[in-house]
Every structure is written in C-alpha cells, then in structure tokens.
Amino acid sequence: MPNSIINLQNTPNKEGVVSRSVAFQSNGAMLKGTLYTPEGASQPLPAAIVAGAWTTVKEQMPGTYARELAARGFAALAFDFTGWGESEGAPRYVEDPVVKTADIQAAADFLATLDEVDSARISGLGVCASSGYMADAVASNANLQKVALVAPWLHDPAMAEAVYGGPEVVPGLIALSEAPGAGEQVLLGASAIGSQCDR
C-alpha cells in the first residue's frame, strides 16, 4: 500500500469532494452547515457529524475534518452551533455544553432524513472540547451509532474551575459574563480577570 499524506490544513477545496449548504432546526434556531460528500458516490453513504474545539466555526476545524472524511467515502456534516457563525441564536458566541449537545442531536436527526445518508450508519467525530458534547450526544441519541474523539478535552466542573482561575475567581467570571453589555466586552485571561473580580 503506497504511503499517503493527510493534509489537515484548512483547504476549502479537496479533490474528489463536493459540498452543499444545508440548514436545520435546533430548539427554534436555524443552524447552517456544509455537507461534504464524495464526488459521484453511490447512495446511501455512512455519515459523520464533525464538531470542533471551542470557538471554531464550520469553515475551520470541523470543515477540515469533514472534507477528509468525505474523501474517504462519508457524507460529513460540519455546522455552526446555535449562536455561532452563520447560525441563528442568542446570546452569540457562548460556550454552552447543553446547547451544543442538543445541536449535535438535532444534526443527527437531520442527517437521518437525507436520501444520500444511510440512517443506520451515522457517527460523531468530536475534536477537543466538542469531544464531551459529542460523547454525550451519541450516548443519548438513537440516530448516532458510533463516536470518535480527537485530542479530547473531557472537562468536568473541577477541571474547568482550575482552568479558569480557581474557586475564588470563577464566581466573578460568571458575574462578568451576566452583566449588562457583557457580549460587547473583550474577555481577558483568567489571571487578568481575577484582579477585576476583586474590585
């Protein structure tokens, strides 16, 4: 078998892969995605939902992995979560595990309706922080049969508290995030915000 190189740089076009824009509902918000499929593929295809690290949108990490999966025979969906990228929803750009898990489940339900997808072979690929959301979605949605995780960050409350500055800082971060106009603020690192929380 000849050696092959897998290029995971963000290249929007990949030979042998076609894409189309799609949209589906999740808890009243219209989510926008891109479905990648192998060019000239026979139907129906095994499918995968791809979710990336924190703060990524479909054109970034999820799209890169989705294109690679399509080149290997999958129908692969990259989408913007509620409140992110081109998808509807407010507040904007909030990392909410419950909402993101529900969005993955809605994506699985959507894929199961497509003619080009084998609804008995839908899987999830979670990268970094989305690994936890994906694992939760696969465990609780009958349309998702398998899960793969890449560089998983499976955070729990204790880990998140430590990452964001400890038990003294986290309540202040939450208060800042809930303050009027918080969506227009630029957030600093936890160590810099710690001094703001003491004021």
Strand composition percent: 15-25%
Largest pleated sheet: 6 strands, mixed
CATH third-tier fold name of the largest domain? Rossmann fold
Distance between the termini: 64 Å
Helix content: 25-40%
Q: Helical region count?
A: 6
* CATH arch. level architecture of the largest domain: 3-Layer(aba) Sandwich
Which class do the helix and strand fractions yield?
alpha/beta
Report the CATH superfamily of the largest domain.
Alpha/Beta hydrolase fold, catalytic domain
| Text of the CATH class of the largest domain | Alpha Beta
Q: What radius of gyration results from the CA coordinates?
A: 18 Å
Overall form:
globular
Using DSSP, what is the number of strands?
Answer: 6
Low-confidence stretches: 189-199
What can you tell me about this protein's structure?
The protein has 199 residues and is an alpha/beta fold. It folds into two domains: 17-155, Alpha/Beta hydrolase fold, catalytic domain (Rossmann fold); 157-199, no CATH class. It is 31% helix and 24% strand. The chain has a six-stranded mixed sheet, with helices on both faces. The termini are far apart.
